[in-house]
Amino acid sequence: MPLIDKSTCPVKSGSIYPGKLADEMTGRSSLRLGDAGGLTQFGANLVMLEPGALSSLRHYHMEQDEFVMVTQGTCTLVDDNGEHEMQVGDCAAFPAGDENGHHFINKTQAPAAFLVVGTRTETETAFYSDINMMVKMGPDGAAFTRKDGSALSTAELGEDS
Amino acid sequence: MPLIDKSTCPVKSGSIYPGKLADEMTGRSSLRLGDAGGLTQFGANLVMLEPGALSSLRHYHMEQDEFVMVTQGTCTLVDDNGEHEMQVGDCAAFPAGDENGHHFINKTQAPAAFLVVGTRTETETAFYSDINMMVKMGPDGAAFTRKDGSALSTAELGEDS
């Protein structure tokens, strides 16, 4: 059945970020709409941001194109050029390899949401713009390291040593 | 610049369908949002339907996943199971190779629109559900034939012979 029933689509929350970095994702959840509809070539997720929530740590992808359309409230896009308020229907695109990192913040007092589409690839590398971290994704999972590949310290992860 | 300015995004209208079949696309236009944002791995288009307009002839894709979210008005999804009214925010997914053909009709008296995302592949074959036609897309363009590969007759194309 092509129609996607959002009411039965599992809500995903939490984060795969290591250490205390995961705490920064409080108030963010998503519906995996494309997965629910049987799609495999790209992800299509509805990301919901409570007031104050972030979509992710600011980052850019090396292999995967990404497209966003705001569907509820106001989302603030943050990139290398500053902050850009986006209303319902506003769109943004992030071509693979473009080093202008991005994320979205709900700076309002009301819920906000956006649809995000990203290509699925067997491997992926993403770099985080504001901290010394990258992630390599592959068939075995995700490896978070410093940008030179070395291990993140407990201090960098916000943990007590 | 990641933000897409819809006001400067070229409006695409018309159709590549052969013969009089193109006439059935009257009242349909689209904004190539993904192209405007520099994306190459998938298309992300805002399809606008005037009252009575069709999104396409009813079809299914063999190689490309497709995802739709209604963004304005009411769109009627037609597939093998009948008609399904979709409101703003409603979503549908069409996995590659699923032979349940689909299209959208604006059966209302007001404008309607949806966002459609489709994978970009080097080649593609699509079959039309309600007529004896297929299209093969490739680097050289699009070839419309009967489903057995033979030529479409002038009668099938709605032309005077």
From TrEMBL, chains A, B:
It holds the Pfam family Cupin_2. Gene3D superfamilies: Jelly Rolls. The keyword Metal-binding applies. GO terms for molecular function: metal ion binding. InterPro entries: Cupin_2, GPI/OXD, RmlC-like_jellyroll, RmlC_Cupin_sf. It comes from the Bacteria. Transmembrane segments: none annotated. Keywords: Metal-binding. The keyword Metal-binding applies. Residues 46-117 form the Cupin type-2 domain. Signal peptide: none annotated. This is Cupin type-2 domain-containing protein. It comes from Actibacterium atlanticum.
